[in-house]
Amino acid sequence: MRLLHRFQRWLFAPLVYLAAVLLLLEDWLWELGARLMNRLTQWPPLHRLEARICRLGPSAALVLFVLPATLLFPVKLLALWAMAHGHPLLGLTVIVAAKLAGAAAVARLYLLTRPVLLTIVWFARLLHWFLALKERWIERLRATAAWRKVGALAAALRHWRQHAVPQPGSWTARFRRLLKRFRARWRA
């Protein structure tokens, strides 16, 4: 029995790590999407639409919360069809774009409908269970030596990026100038 348990842990460990990494990616996309949608909703028609969404009842809020995933499912199937018919780059691009758009829409809708959704008892329980599970998986991932190594590498890369002085006229200098212009226009 012990050998079987050890074998199961050995077999499922990579899957747990993969799931934790995907959850971290989803968190990053969630935050990015929320910031993007926050900027978009400063447009008056979208602002009015958000005000109407905030006034929805629990059932309508739940339907609206599930709607982006439901609407993007056929798009993802078409992307898989394109990949199967010799267009892998197009299919992958569509899947990534659909994932980004879906994460942004769901993030914003969740922020708008969360107070109403938490009045649904089963939704509140399911959300609590999922968030606890996600936190356990991420903590397991962060406890690994690989995570610490990747964190140290990322810190070294950030330090290098902030303190490295590019040669004038190099591609890094041009890229930094381009990023500065993009940030200035994005914030304006």
User: Any idea how many domains?
Assistant: 2
**What is the helix/strand order?**
HHHHHHH
Strand content: under 5%
Oligomer: single chain
Uncertain runs are none
Give the overall shape, derived from the CA principal axes.
globular
| SS-based class | mainly alpha
Q: Outline the biggest β-sheet.
A: none
Report the span from N to C terminus: 63 Å
The number of distinct β-strands equals 0
Average residue-wise pLDDT: 80
Gyration radius, in Å: 21 Å
Give the % helix.
over 70%
Instruction: Compute the number of helices.
Output: 7
Molecular structure report:
With 188 residues, the chain is an all-alpha fold. It folds into 2 domains: 143 residues, no CATH class; 32 residues, no CATH class. 88% of the residues lie in helices and 0% in strands. The protein is built from 7 helices and no strands. α1 packs across α5 and α3 runs antiparallel to α4. It is globular. The mean pLDDT is 80.
Question: What's the structural blueprint in terms of helices and strands?
Answer:
Layout: H1 2-40, H2 44-54, H3 58-84, H4 88-117, H5 121-142, H6 145-163, H7 171-187
Helix pairs in contact: 1-4, 1-5, 3-4
Nutshell version of this structure?
This protein is 88% helix and 0% strand. With 188 residues, the chain is an all-alpha fold.
Q: Could you list some keywords that capture this structure?
A:
188 residues; mainly alpha; 2 domains
